[in-house]
Design a protein that fits this description.
- Helices cover 43% and strands 15% of the residues.
- The protein folds into two domains: 125 residues, no CATH class; 284 residues, no CATH class.
- By secondary structure, the protein is an alpha/beta fold.
Length: 478
């Protein structure tokens, strides 16, 4: 059967998208008039100071619209001059340090590059690692950069300079006013992913399998949040709104966790790491309670027990100042700082089997013995600690609970944000099957659909983070 998306709600969607675009244009048109309500506090203060000085110079003069506009332009010019000055100072200092280090490190860097390049060619000739036999050296620049001698030292020097000159951007990463790091995202119309999801929903409906799309929140509660520094534009929420609006108009079941955060009156930023894109393990635990509630409502099966959803029934072990996330890894500790990492494990009895076929892993034991991988819990500064749950990402994993509260089976199609979510769902349900469609983890929709047919789950869930969304993650059907 060809699961083509119905044309009936498409016209509604086009109208909705037109409204969103008009609203966006209206927002841009009135930006300067509304900057006191958006993210222009710093600019506004300087503007008022400049206006105050003009009034002192000409106390009897009334301020016309022309004078107000001119003062605002002067204020913006001052801001741009400050940014340029900081950039020049940083560049001069870095150039000086570069001349000191480059001579000493050139030989080591060349040797590292040669070794890494040779390994790439050897791996490409290995039929197990590269069945196609095609040697692709398009990533030579990346190989050279990754094997740069004292690469981390260069990053930390740059990090130190950026902090000293009060820059808000480094290596494409923006530091918000509250010191959280984010990667700006360009506007993307995601309605085409809504169509793929609607088709998949129709496919599952034919099999009498319920479907739920879970929208994971971005670190920014709003694209124009007051914490975003002046001069930086990003569009994660406005982009993903085109997807969630499409799904709602198409009657696809959706749980938007952004709305749940508001409903529960949570501090949005406290749900995320400062140095990483991911949410914290505490946030992952909270998310699993919301997903469980939605599943129970959809399947008409009331939640039997709160044992697994009450954080009081868990041990929380905090690793202080240990986590350097992916955003901080690009900027260095001096620019980003470090995050704490919480390891959450049940105090109640548990018996779990974790299977990861690609790693030939099949282990049974308690939650702590099977779900948590201690090799990722190093005590020094650690960029891999997020992978302590479930050993990080693979194409397929299966969690089997031998002491389940519910004997239902969950099939979760996910990205990395589900690593601290799925294990807690696995304490309630008998089986949680996890699949990542991305080819870098050997994921593909043919294998996913085969496993889905074999499992015949009680519900299929897709859960994605806005900046993870790509065509590959929405290729549910061949």
């Amino acid at each position: 059967m060809d699961y083509n998306y119905r044309d009936e709600p498409l016209a509604k969607w086009e109208q909705e998208l037109k409204k969103l675009e008009e609203a966006d244009r209206e927002w841009e048109k009135n930006l300067l008039e509304k900057f006191e309500k958006a993210r222009q506090e710093e600019l506004k203060e300087k503007f008022l100071v400049n206006l105050f000085h003009k009034q002192k110079q000409s106390p009897k003069e009334e301020f016309s619209q022309e004078i107000l506009t001119q003062t605002l332009k002067e204020t913006i010019a001052e801001e741009e001059a400050i940014v340029e000055k900081h950039s020049v100072v940083g560049a001069v200092f870095l150039s000086f340090l570069f001349l000191i280090f480059i001579g000493a490190n050139f030989y080591d860097n060349t040797q590292n590059f040669t070794d890494a390049l040779q390994k790439t060619i050897t791996d490409a000739k290995n039929p197990k690692k590269n069945p196609s036999g095609i040697i692709n050296l398009s990533n030579v620049d990346t190989i050279f950069t990754d094997n740069l001698a004292f690469k981390e030292g260069y990053i930390e020097i740059n990090s130190l300079v950026s902090n000293a000159t009060e820059q808000r951007e480094m290596n494409g990463i923006v530091k918000l006013k509250n010191d959280y790091l984010t990667l700006p995202m360009e506007y993307t119309d995601m309605s085409r992913f809504g169509r793929s999801t609607a088709n998949f929903n129709a496919y599952l409906n034919e099999k009498n399998i319920p479907f739920l799309y879970v929208q994971i929140p971005h670190k920014l509660p709003s694209d124009v949040d007051k914490q975003v520094p002046y001069g930086f534009d990003t569009y994660p929420n406005r982009s993903v709104n085109t997807l969630t609006s499409f799904l709602k108009l198409s009657d696809v079941p959706i749980l938007d966790l952004r709305e749940e955060i508001k409903n529960d009156e949570l501090d949005h930023y406290e749900l995320f790491y400062k140095t990483d894109s991911h949410w914290t393990t505490e946030a992952g635990f909270w998310a699993h309670t919301k997903i469980l509630e939605a599943i129970c409502e959809m399947l008409g099966t009331p939640q039997i027990s709160t044992q697994t959803t009450d954080l009081e029934n868990y041990k929380i072990q905090v690793y202080k100042n240990i986590f350097l996330g992916s955003r901080g890894h690009r900027t260095g500790v001096n620019f980003s700082g470090l995050d704490d990492f919480s390891l959450i494990s049940p105090l109640f009895e548990s018996s779990i089997t974790l299977q990861i076929p690609r790693d030939e892993l099949d282990v049974t034991g308690t939650f702590r013995e099977t779900i948590i991988f201690d090799e990722h819990l190093k005590t020094e500064v650690n960029s891999e600690i997020y992978n302590a749950y479930l050993k990080g990402l693979e194409n397929y994993k299966k969690i089997t609970n031998h002491m389940p509260i519910s004997n239902q089976k969950i099939f979760l199609i996910h990205d990395s944000f589900s690593l601290p979510v799925a294990p807690f769902l696995g304490l309630y349900y008998e089986e949680v099957h996890m699949y990542d469609l991305r080819s870098e983890y050997d994921g593909n929709n043919i294998e996913m659909l085969q496993i889905l047919d074999e499992v015949n789950p009680d519900i299929v869930i897709v859960a994605y983070y806005p900046q993870s969304i790509t065509h590959e993650l929405f290729a549910f059907l061949p």
